[in-house]
Amino acid sequence: MENILQAIGIENYIFLSVMLFCIGAFGVLYRRNAIIMFMSIEIMLNAVNLLLVAFSTLHQDAEGQVFVFFSMAVAAAEVAVGLAILVSIFRNTGSIDIDNLKNLKG
Amino acid sequence: MNTLIAISILGVLTLIAEIFNGRKLIVPVAVVGLLGILGYTISPYNAYDFFFNNMMVVDKFSVAFSSLFIVITILLILLSHEFYKDVPSTISDFVAIKIFLLAGAVAMVSFGNLAMFFLGIEILSIALYVLAASKRLDLRSNEAGMKYFLMGCFASGIILFGITLVYGSTGTFDTIAIYQISHSTTFPLWFYIGLVMLLIGMLFKIAAVPFHFWAPDVYEGAPGLTTATMSTFAKIVAMAALFKLITILLPSKLYELDLTIVVVAALSMLVGNIMALRQNNVKRMFAFSGISHAGFMLSTLLISNNSANVLFYYATAYAVAGLAFFAVVLYVTKNKKHETIDAFNGLGKTHPLLALVMTASLLSMAGIPILSGFFAKFFLLNELVQANWLVLVIIAIIASIISVGYYFKIILAMYTKSSEEELPSVPMIYAVVAVLGLIINIGIGLAPSFIYDLLG
Fold first, then answer.
1. Which of A24, A51, A78 sits opposite B126 (nearest CB)?
2. Do residues B148 and B287 touch, judged by C-beta distance below 8 A?
3. Residues of chain A contacting residue B139, judged by C-beta atoms under 8 Å apart
4. What residues of chain A have any CB closer than 8 angstroms to a CB in chain B?
5. Parallel, antiparallel, or unpaired: how do β-strands B49-51 and B56-58 relate?
6. A26: how many CB neighbours lie within 10 A of its CB?
């Protein structure tokens, strides 16, 4: 056996990634603290990165690993904007609880 | 390809202009630069080129849609000069963000590789998060930005997962290679799961039912010009990207996918129009109207021949009417906290020109003849009948009839009620943009073949 991927099996990588992705998704849906929601989004994106690297090894193709760099850079930019929005919310309301944001409805 | 580079350079230039105190020049330079880029984009019209190992593909589809996006961006930048008059120190940021938005949009319609598609959609989304929350002292704008950010990131995660599964099953990000593989061999089930996740993510972005719940809140809370950007620009960009994605990833018609799209489109038309009836806020009403138009545009995916033309014509008609609508709304609701329909009372007497433009764009969106919106719906329904989706045609007609109800609420307010308060004089540029929108609207309504035959 040369390849660790063959020993573990690609299915197990997919199961792990899907599980992490679902943990992230449920975190976004159920947690009310903005910072924890951001962390959950990061977990979702990192689950995808893990799967990309696994597929990249499966296909013996470097493209997938290069894509991981793109997605990491984009995730960093996204969270920077998100934290900036959060700071301006904190300045206006004095808290980071998402439940305070209930002005818009109808 | 060079279009994308030129747009990015122009964006950086507008940021640098701030350093050299060229604030007054920013809007004219940006508009002239974009006009130059527009000419440059159109000139190799029949080209079919690949750039950077097939990262970018320039074909008729991408050239036509890129030109449309550039025209819309020019109109939006013209509006931004007046809209940000109270905060002159930040005008370069807003203009630069709008130009970067355009760069993302161009990448989204001319991608040849799923990496480029992902980068394009992220550039577009991140720029829009910033714009939505840009009124930072206003809690409603903050709330809109936060909601849009959370929903957008969630959708981006789903899109990314979809791209990964497509990569896992085909072993490449290149769209031409994927096209060949999906034609020839059988591949793991992941491909279809990935396709569905991509579809879900894009439906989030274009705000189609059942992924529409963020749209009304975000459109209401965001600053007026941002709402105009999101509802006209971002929606047709996402729709064009979804169209291109589906045609590439799914060469043969799949009945299950068609059925999904029929259900989503029918629900979007009905829910959007019915919910819009009970709205009193103009921006919120336009959000629901936009949801129903997303349903109409989605149904172009069902058509087998001429579908790109129908989508392009519908997108043009919708965007032009929306821009003219927002040019009037920005003026009328300028110093008001809430954008209720009462604000339009008596506009027909005090400002007949703006009232005329408003009426025309509303009638265009409802689908009344000689305006382009009618022909957009006519072409779409005509092709849908030929594709044997009569159910959807009937639902679309019912939805259009419902939509007349709330569009006339604004028209009646303008012409039958009288206003109590004096409106300030009309800024020149708003009137210019509104009239331009009206002229384009009637122009492509009178000569539909000019736009309709572009994509061959």
1. A78
2. no
3. 89, 92-93, 101, 103
4. 10, 14, 21, 24-25, 28, 34, 37, 41, 44-45, 47-48, 51-52, 55, 58-59, 61, 63-64, 66-67, 70-71, 74, 77-78, 81-82, 84-86, 88-89, 91-93, 98, 101, 103-106
5. antiparallel
6. 11
State the CB neighbour count (10 A cutoff) for residue A97. Answer: 12
The reply to whether B145 touches chain A by the CB within 8 Å rule is yes
The owner of tokens 């589809």 is B61
pLDDT digits (tens, 9 = 90+) for B256-313: 889 999 999 999 999 999 999 988 899 999 999 999 999 999 999 998 878 899 999 9
User: What token pair was written down for B211?
Assistant: 């992924």
The helix-helix angle for B60-83 and B26-42 (nearest 10°) equals 170
Question: Cα separation of A72 and B187, whole Å?
Answer: 28
| Interface contact A85-B160, CB threshold 8 A | no
| Contact status, residue B220 vs residue B140, Cβ threshold 8 Å | yes
* Contact between B142 and A88 (Cβ < 8 Å): yes
Q: How far is B239 from chain A (nearest CA, A)?
A: 22
Averaged confidence pLDDT in chain B? 89
A48/B144 touch (CB, cutoff 8 Å), yes or no: no
Residue B138: phi and psi, rounded to 5, are: -100, 120
Rounded Cα distance between B233 and B71, Å, is 10
Neighboring chain A residues of B145 at a CB cutoff of 8 Å = 85
Q: Give the residue among B399, B366, B402, B362 at the shortest CA–CA distance from B268.
A: B399
Angle subtended by helix axes B60-83 and B428-446, to nearest 10: 150
Q: Is the CB of residue B358 less than 8 Å from the CB of residue B328?
A: yes
Query: Which single residue is written with the structure tokens 């009462």?
Result: B342
Q: How many helices (H) and strands (E) does chain A have?
A: 4, 0
pLDDT digits (tens, 9 = 90+) for B194-250: 999 999 999 999 999 899 989 999 999 999 999 999 999 999 999 999 999 998 888
Tell me the pTM: 0.94
Q: Please name the residue ranges forming H helices in B335-455.
A: 347-350, 352-366, 372-386, 390-416, 428-446, 448-452
- Domain ranges within chain A, ordered by starting residue: 4-95
State ipTM.
Answer: 0.94
**Given the structure tokens 């660790």, which residue do they identify?**
A4
User: How far, in Å, are B328, B333, B347, B356 from residue B352 at the CA level?
Assistant: 12, 17, 7, 6
In CATH, A4-95 is 1.10.287.3510: yes
Judge contact between B129 and B145, C-beta under 8 A.
yes
What distance lies between CA B239 and its chain's CA centroid? 8
Q: What is the pLDDT of residues B125-160, one digit of tens each?
A: 999 999 999 888 888 899 999 999 999 999 999 999
Mean pLDDT, range B411-432, rounded to an integer: 84
